[in-house]
Amino acid sequence: MLLAVLAACSSGSGGDPGLEPDASSSTIDTPPAQPDAPAFVDLDGDGLDDKRELQLATDYLPYLSLDAGDGCPLDGLVARVRPHPKDPTKVLIVYSHLFQNDCGLAGHVGDNEAFGIAIDPDVPPPAGILAIKTASHQGTPCERDSECTTCALDGRTKCDTAMDNGQAWPVLYASKDKHGQYATKSACSAFGTCFDSCSLNATRDVPPVVNVGEPSYHFTHDLTSRR
Q: I want to staple 101 with a disulfide (CB 3.0 to 4.6 A). Which of 52, 72, 154, 179 is the partner?
């Protein structure tokens, strides 16, 4: 099972102190009525609200960099979202990056590559993305695992970043035509990766995301479109 590294990045959460009430004022403000909170629904039994799972998988998706010259870029993502097994205050999201085709050496129809991220859901993205881990060409002689953290604790590799809408996002690279996933560009070298090559695309790839639920409860069994 692919597990993202949980980097213990700390984050400050300070706000302005509350003001003392004006003792000279006799007016009491009545707070406005609050709308009913949406119902908590957890059909897959992992402790997270099902709608929130998809929102987290979409909002915290790293900057996906697909080579600008990729010959078969049509893609999508399925995601499993659950509390992190090493720290339930964090969330582990494992994605399978699906492509219509692999058009590299020994190409074939259908292509899937996995990567995982650890996030702090209490910290807005991209700062809440703590770590990325990948296994390119998993289960083949070309497999190469790579990982990075956003705070680079304990000498671990720091994630590359790219700007999007004025914010620096951790980058996830997909190799040209073969789509091997890499946590850093330096990990995507021709040596030891069956000649993969990666580049930073100035345009972020934002494919559709489907939350597939847990192994004991699937939200979907068919990703095809039916008309």
A: 72
Q: Which of 56, 46, 184, 166 is nearest to 120 (CA)?
A: 56
Return the closest-CA partner of residue 76 out of 225, 200, 195: 225
Bridge partners (DSSP) of residue 166 are none
SS3 content of the chain, % helix, strand, coil (to 5): 5, 35, 60
Nearest Cα neighbor of 100 from 136, 138, 74, 66 is 74
Residue burial 46-77, b: 16+ Cβ < 10 Å; e: rest: bebbbebbbebbebbbbbbbbbeebebbebeb
Range of the domain at 179: 50-218
Our count of domains for the chain comes to 1
Tokens at residue 97, please?
Answer: 């990056």
**Is the distance from CB of 91 to CB of 157 less than 8 angstroms?**
no
Output the pTM of the full model: 0.81
Residue 28 scores a pLDDT above 60: no
